[in-house]
Amino acid sequence: MDIEYACDSFGHDVCHLSDFMKRAKVCALIVVKPGVGTFEKYDLTNEFCAEENAPPNGPAKLYGVASVTKSITSTVLAHALAARGVRSKADFENDLRKSVGEFLPEIRSGLLAGYADVPLDHLLRMRSGIWWSEYGWHGLFSGAALFAKLVRIDMQESVIAFAHRFGFRSGTAKFNYSALDAAVAAAVAERLLADEPLTHFFQAGLWAAIGAESKATWGVDNTGLVIGPCCFKASARDLARFGLLVLRKGRDAKGQVIIPEAWFEIATKPSDRFSDIGPPFQNNGCRLDYGYFWWVRQNRSDFTAVGRDGQFVHVFPHSNTVVIQISDWHAWTNGAAIECETFRAHDALVSVITEPGRK
Fold first, then answer.
1. What is the β-pairing status of strands 232-234 and 288-290?
2. pTM reported for the whole predicted model
């Protein structure tokens, strides 16, 4: 099946899905519309996403999804809150107003302790006010690179110990994309579980609830805490199952409530509290807002998780459709432009997957 869509936002040229798969280096693409049909395609030449000692592209392969993990982290946090009896929107908002320090008292220690008074709502919207440079200055002084070395790779420091390095508050709620905010959010989620590791809670809870075919893998720090901003691997089909749980606002395929619907009414929509200081950082070619670690397309209902190499869990509530895309963009090289085309390709796919029996 080939699909046509507008190459640019002005509709001057027509592009085709077959060309997009090559140009966007797509390794896996799945579109699911419950009760109607599924479209599934992989780069079987293995020109893209080729990894040493890894299986070829296909349903059995576990794909690294980079910052898509952040959206999974916020959803697992919601599940942890629900396990403590949180149900209504008012219940969630009450806990979201609490500070990180109320959940993680040890983060108050030390000279910096910037996260101690950050409301959980601000943390999940990446408006913590903590000093952080995700990309650095001309590639230098990147907080994300330091986090990768000390926490992820060398495992010299835990997430909490590392967080103590970044304590200077800016005094504003300005959006600042931050891997550390997502790492601290995962620490909050684990603390909500008392003595149960978040890895076990996730696998036995949310991942089992979606009917996952494969066990996902998730990198941890030196205390065993999952790395909230990244380091998650799963099959494309299981990512689609996760997307369907979000599409159904927390219900599994049998209709059982796993996470209360009220969470998704907050998490997948931008906040109206920050209109006075402007929207977050956006791709100017296809402007985006932000929810709880979900990117929200402006003036639309759809929202998506996005990974730096072109990974997407894209949810279309009004069309009752989920799109999964795994690409090989090599850390967002020309990503801003190809992301906008990706959205147009996804829109076209969603509009086509409408007839019963279409595959």
1. unpaired
2. 0.95
